[in-house]
Amino acid sequence: xxxxxxxxxxxxxxxxxxxxxxxxxxxxxxxxxxxxxxxxxxxxxxxxxxxxxxxxxxxxxxxxxxxxxxxxxxxxxxxxxxxxxxxxxxxxxxxxxxxxxxxxxxxxxxxxxxxxxxxxxxxxxxxxxxxxxxxxxxxxxxxxxxxxxxxxxxxxxxxxxxxxxxxxxxxxxxxxxxxxxxxxxxxx
Length: 188
Prior knowledge:
This protein is an all-alpha fold. The protein is 73% helix and 0% strand.
């Protein structure tokens, strides 16, 4: 461990967050959260991929209906802020077909990443981004709970995929702890 510079203050991690976010002993907790959230995303995306109004002959129709409902809420001053209403009207609505494919396949990819424990932190980040987008558009449903779980998984990225493909993928890709080990081995 390197000594702090004059511009840094290092605050030791408390035992609870150290256990949850850096100890592989907590990986079983994250496995449960990860598989639950992943299954939720995978099933939602799978349904969309097999629905005409999302990715079939009428691709984009589901997004158009969703956006128009959100814009009505924005016009009434309910649940959707004006800036997000502007984004929906200016960016999403004209590109409804593209966004329909992005949402449907994005949900499947997030679900697979979380279930398999592959790039867990990245998958959870994009799942959380979709949750926030749906919340901004005025849809509550399970989005707040899934956003909280996604945030926790992002924080636990180092151990959340321990019982999954991250155990090997992150070592192969070069994570901070593997680079540190290789530097320390060279010093002896």
